[in-house]
Amino acid sequence: MATIQGVIFDIDGTLVDSNDAHAESWVETFREFGRDVPFTKVRSLIGMGGDKLLPECVGLADDSPEGKAMSKHRTDLFKREYLPNLDPFPGTRDLLERLKADGYRLAIATSAKSDELTGLLRAAGALGIFDESTTKSDVENSKPDPDAIHSALGKLGLAPHEVVMVGDTPYDVEAANKAGVRAVALRCGGWKDADLAAAAAVYDDPADLLKHLEHSPIGREP
């Protein structure tokens, strides 16, 4: 078994408790534009980017005039009303610091847009920790397409078998698997184990992963 040299993280629902906030900001945005979309429908799609969510929820392409207007409104609303109140999950900072101390290279691969990432990293207590980052703004297709994972691998300069992806949604797991990267899933994003069955391992949250790190897919021992 190859030695793992890098870890790619999702951030929303993985390091920061933000999935409900993202869903609520979309629901509120749709309502502002005269569209009534249930919270449960939107929540089930969080983890995808707007290029996937908008067509699923309201039948609009994200690059259409109305789609662009909705996306901008949603981003502004999220950053203004929701982002300042987000908290990291237990163990987030400790896990990242342990990985850095152990010599792993760290990257973010998120379906969030680039103008949200700094605030999310601040909420996670993780500013300055990651070596690289890839957002929806950097790639053509968001998760579950593997574009963000491929981009992160290229920036890290590592091969798929040298990296583990940590996420919280089935879209993270699917994207990682499509890129040939083993996935570790965390339950803290609100998904059930059955939804995360394609992951190599499942843990409660960053603190639980840290507790079992040496025997996890990230651990250096085969």
Low-confidence stretches: none
- Kindly report the spatial arrangement of strands forming the biggest sheet: 3-2-1-4-5-6
Q: What is the 3D shape? A: globular
Strand content: 5-15%
**What about the largest sheet?**
6 strands, parallel
Distance from first to last alpha carbon:
6 Å
Characterization of the model:
The structure is a single chain. With 222 residues, the protein is of the alpha/beta class. The chain folds into 2 domains: 6-17 and 87-215, HAD superfamily/HAD-like (Rossmann fold, 3-Layer(aba) Sandwich), CATH 3.40.50.1000; 19-84, Putative phosphatase, domain 2 (DNA polymerase, domain 1, Orthogonal Bundle), CATH 1.10.150.240. 41% of the residues lie in helices and 11% in strands. It contains 9 helices and 6 strands; from the N terminus they run E-H-H-H-H-H-E-H-E-H-E-H-E-E-H. It has helices spanning 19-32, 39-43, 50-58, 65-82, 92-101, 114-124, 147-156, 170-178, 206-211; strands at 6-9, 105-109, 132-134, 163-167, 182-186, 201-203. Helix 1 (19-32) packs across helix 4 (65-82). The radius of gyration is 17 Å and the shape is globular. The model has no long low-confidence stretch (mean pLDDT 95).
Q: Which structural traits does this protein have?
A:
2 domains, DNA polymerase, domain 1, 6-stranded parallel β-sheet, 222 residues, alpha/beta
